[in-house]
Amino acid sequence: MTDDASVTEEPDTRQLDELLDDIYHGQERITQADIYRRAVAAELPAELLSRIAALPQGEYAVDEAAELLGGTIA
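Above: the chain sequence. Below: its structure as tokens.
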């Protein structure tokens, strides 16, 4: 029995944080579609792509996107 099981259940969100930091550089709001396109181009893991795809259509500020997607950027 190991304690590592809970650690591996959540995907590493560092890639998500880096993506959000990059795409919001100089931008206040980005559409869900643009976030998803950039995530695909950055080859984010399927779990993170699924989270982004599940966002309702619309524009998001970086803190809104991070909160909804489970990232840590604020």
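The CA atoms of residues 22 and 38 lie 10 Å apart.
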